[in-house]
Design a protein that fits this description.
The protein has an eight-stranded mixed sheet with strand order 12-11-8-13-16-17-18-19, sandwiched between helices. A five-stranded parallel sheet has the order 2-1-3-4-5, with helices on both faces. A two-stranded antiparallel sheet has the order 6-7. Helix 4 crosses helix 6. A hairpin with a 5-residue loop joins strand 9 and strand 10. It is an alpha/beta fold. It folds into two domains: 174 residues, Flavin prenyltransferase-like (Rossmann fold, 3-Layer(aba) Sandwich), CATH 3.40.50.1950; 195 residues, CoaB-like (Rossmann fold, 3-Layer(aba) Sandwich). Bound molecules: cytidine-5'-monophosphate. The site of cytidine-5'-monophosphate (C5P) has 14 residues, from helix 12 and strand 16. Cytidine-5'-monophosphate binds next to helix 12 and strand 16.
């Protein structure tokens, strides 16, 4: 932990027994270099002392929306603007409900309405409160507005029961904050990434294509570059600008993408296939525009190479990450695909679900690897990408270290 230097974290503490973990969290965040301001709700004060949080954060704790002295020192709008990240830990069911409905009658909820910084919630509550449909609906509503949910974890609860609803441990939360700001460290790592659709021409004016916008791939390329990687992006036709600090090769067809990848793959340690590559191309491409016919027309298609599978089958393959768009049985089909292609990780999403996929700015993904998986709830692709990049970096380093030892 050392990457949070200069980062400004606004920590909201709401009233739950897990509030004691926020004290340790503040210590970890400050040790990592973050500047932390704490905002407590009235009920949080029943669980943890203001003085404790003040001493640990090194700043007076903000408590009251209507306190003229506090507002004069650093008003709620100023605080909302100050934050790079708002983290509410613990976040109670009551606070989630208030946030979901836009209430702003205390300092923390007013801040959450006023800030443009990302908001992460670390829920903590009894398992039945967590499972209650109203809490789940509030969660879905908040996620649909781009709020992040970190946890809850599962296990023994203060009420004597066991199940989902435990606040993540302070160390895990500090780790999430770090991942958020610096998604893993990929300094100097060569990354080759495919993104966007391909176009398979039928004649000089027509092609077979697909609905991929390239947004997820471009967001991931940006996040990997921000983590220090040297990213080369092989992109199908999209209407997106090349992200800063990335070299881009534009291609049209799957065969062009294949050639561009195979030419460069020796230089990369990590290959991410985010492109929606056409599985088939027309067997022949007419040199002239095809004329309209009165009768039925058949188009003969031949298979394209599976770029990802071929990269994974190289004698010395890079660490490989694929994407899987499924319409049902997401995790089962994606894991089968991961094994069939012989790749390290696969990010799977439901394409016909309301929560994201092609042409959308938001997505919900499940990342799968050998023996594990992690779900990333609906979030703007630009917010999802750094989290994905962090997990990819973690697994990449774990594999490289294991191979080296
Ligand atoms: O088999 P399926 O097309 O569902 O696999 C999707 C994954 O494989 C994506 O990561 C995609 O970029 C990659 N792929 C590829 N070349 C193909 C087809 C898919 O690299 N011809």
């Amino acid at each position: 932990m050392s990457h949070l230097s200069g980062k400004r974290v606004l920590l909201g503490v709401t009233g739950g027994i897990a509030a004691y973990k926020s004290a340790i969290l503040i210590r970890y965040l400050r040790e990592a270099g973050a500047d932390v301001h704490v905002v407590m709700t009235a009920s949080a004060r029943a669980f943890i002392g203001t003085l404790t949080l003040q001493a640990l954060s090194g700043h007076p704790v903000h408590e009251d929306l209507m306190d003229p002295a506090q507002e004069a020192a650093m008003g709620h709008i100023q605080l909302a603007r100050w934050a790079d990240l708002v983290l509410v830990a613990p976040a109670t069911a009551n606070f989630m409900a208030r946030l979901a409905h836009g209430l702003a009658d205390d300092l923390l909820s007013a801040l959450c309405l006023a800030t443009t910084a990302p908001i992460a919630l670390a829920p903590a509550m009894n398992r039945e409160m967590w499972r209650n449909p109203v809490t789940q609906q509030n969660k879905a509503l908040l996620e649909s507005r781009g709020m992040l949910f970190w946890g809850p974890g599962e296990g023994a609860q203060a009420c004597g029961e066991s199940g989902p609803g435990r606040l993540l441990e302070a160390e895990q939360l500090a780790r999430r904050v770090q991942d958020w700001f610096a998604p893993g460290d990929l300094r100097g790592v060569g990354v080759l990434l495919t993104a966007g659709p391909t176009r398979e021409p039928l004649d000089p004016v027509r092609f077979l294509g697909n609905r991929s916008s390239g947004k997820m791939g471009y967001a991931l390329a940006t996040a990997l570059a921000e983590a220090g990687a040297e990213v080369c992006l092989v992109s199908g036709p999209v209407s997106l600008d090349c992200p800063a600090g990335i070299s881009r090769v534009m291609v049209e067809t799957a065969m062009e993408m294949y050639d561009a990848v195979m030419e460069r793959v020796v230089d990369c340690a990590l290959f991410v296939a985010a492109a929606a590559v056409a599985d088939y191309r027309p067997a022949s491409v007419s040199a002239q525009k095809l004329k309209k016919k009165e009768h039925e027309v058949e188009i003969s298609l031949v298979p394209n190479p599976d770029i990802l599978a071929e990269v994974a089958a190289l004698p010395h393959p890079p660490f490989t990450v694929g994407f899987a768009a499924e319409t049902e049985r997401l995790e089962e089909y994606a894991e089968t695909k991961r094994r069939a292609k012989g790749i390290d990780m696969i990010a799977a999403n439901l394409v016909d679900a309301p929560e994201g996929g092609f042409e959308r700015d938001e997505n919900a993904l499940t990342l799968l690897w050998e023996g594990g998986h992690e779900r990333f709830p609906l979030a703007p692709k630009s917010l999802l990408a750094p989290q994905l990049a962090a997990r990819i970096a973690e697994h990449f380093h774990a594999k490289v270290t294991a191979e080296d030892s």
